[in-house]
Amino acid sequence: MMRIAGVLALLGALCGTSLAAQETDSPVAAEKPPEKQCQPDVGCVTNLPLPRFVSLKGSEGNARRGPGLTHRIDWVFTRAGMPLKITAEYENWRRVEDFEGAGGWVHYSLLSGVRTVLVTLDMAELRDDPSDSATVIAQAELGVVGRVLECNPDWCRVSLDGMRGWIRKTAVWGVNADEIIE
Asked: 3-state SS string over 74-92?
């Protein structure tokens, strides 16, 4: 121990500081910096809520087994505008899943904050007002993707293939049941 302290003292003298004192006397030097604590319902990177919905920016996006280019591609999303649910964040990567639960880690640059929904009910009715008694203006087939314009507790106003109207939240995937979008 004496030799190590002597070497540290010599190195400290050359650098103008006492390394031996820092090594043995300072309890702060031995402490690690505190790690960032994440809340389970908030992303550590963005501080946005988790889970949350986004959409696929382009017409193709690779979903990888882990957050990085070295991880193998498990899934490829091939539909522009497809709604995806972010369930975790790590640096520039987001773990996402589609309406069937398939997914993986996607680079954040492939995602958009534009809110979309996927019609999950065949021949879902698009109405002119958010009411079951409102006039049906169109029907949407299963699998159609549309842009969300606004949502109240039970209905969402969407744009589907150029048609705008209200659709029941229970007929789409891409918004939370209690979510309100203005």
From this structure: EEEECCCCCEEEEEEEECC
Residue that has been written with the tokens 């505008």 in this structure:
81
Query: SS3 for 110?
Result: helix
Mark whether 127 and 89 lie in a shared domain.
no
Overall number of domains in the chain: 2
Token digits of residue 135:
């006039």
Neighbours of 167 (CB within 10 A): 25
Question: Do residues 145 and 158 both lie within one domain?
Answer: yes
Q: Report the mean per-residue pLDDT for the chain.
A: 85
Residues 60 and 93 in one domain: yes
Which token pair is 159?
């744009």
pLDDT of 109 strictly over 90: yes
Q: What are the structure tokens assigned to 31, written together? A: 């402490």
Question: Which two structure tokens, joined as six digits, stand for 21?
Answer: 């004192």
- Tell me the residue range of the domain where 93 lies: 52-114
Rounded mean pLDDT of 161-179? 96
